[in-house]
Write a structure and sequence with these properties.
This protein is mostly helical. Among the domains are: 1-42, no CATH class; 106-190, no CATH class. The protein is 60% helix and 0% strand. The protein has helices spanning 9-19, 26-36, 73-93, 106-117, 120-136, 141-144, 149-180, 184-190. It comes from Equus caballus. This is Sperm associated antigen 16.
């Protein structure tokens, strides 16, 4: 119990309630303090100086370990050499093979072109006629072949050019709006 000699009995009672100690009358608490003597809490910090000034270093945990009971220099050297060889092999294998470019099939090229141009009726007609020829066996997919890479590249460049022109148009419009409008803050400074 924490109590000083000059502490009021009501303060002791509050302390007893806070600590969960049974409630006693103020007189009984004062008698207990007088009989046992006054107690009070004091905060003390204990600092222990190290007897030896040796600084301990932490040993890093490596990816390899040696089983207990088999700790000898020859095995440790052998494990380090194996780890170096494994690292060297992994470095050599990190070269990724290039992904082969699969040329676009003519059918897909034509369908993409018709979709891009918005020719949906022509697309429907082409697809129905195309699959009809394949079903009848008049046209084989192997004979048709692939689209030469030049056409595919031209199509990609054309799409990129179209997107860049659209962006340029938007930037020009934004620049024109900025030139013809006075900023609001200039008017407020002049006034």
């Amino acid at each position: 119990m924490a109590a000083e000699e000059g502490m009021a009995p009501s303060a002791l009672r509050v302390l007893e309630e806070a600590l969960g100690v049974g409630l006693t009358s103020a007189g009984a608490t004062a008698e207990a303090v007088a009989a046992e003597g006054a107690y009070y809490l004091e905060q003390v910090t204990i600092t222990e100086a190290s007897e030896d000034d040796y600084e301990y270093e932490e040993i890093p945990d490596d990816n390899f370990s040696i089983p207990e009971g088999e700790e000898d220099l020859a095995k440790a050297i052998h494990m380090v050499q194996e780890q170096a060889i494994d690292t060297h092999i992994l470095e050599q294998k990190t070269v990724l093979p290039s992904k082969p470019v699969v040329p676009e099939v003519i059918e897909d090229f034509l369908c993409n072109f018709l979709i891009k141009m918005g020719m949906t009726r022509t697309l429907d007609c082409f697809q129905s006629e195309w699959y009809e020829l394949i079903q009848k066996g008049i046209t084989e997919l192997r004979e048709v072949g692939n689209v030469p890479d030049v056409y595919t590249q031209n199509m990609l460049l054309e799409n990129e050019n179209k997107n860049l022109r659209k962006d340029l148009k938007h930037y020009k419009q934004a620049a024109e709006r900025a030139v013809f409008r006075e900023p609001v803050w200039i008017n407020s400074i002049i006034l």
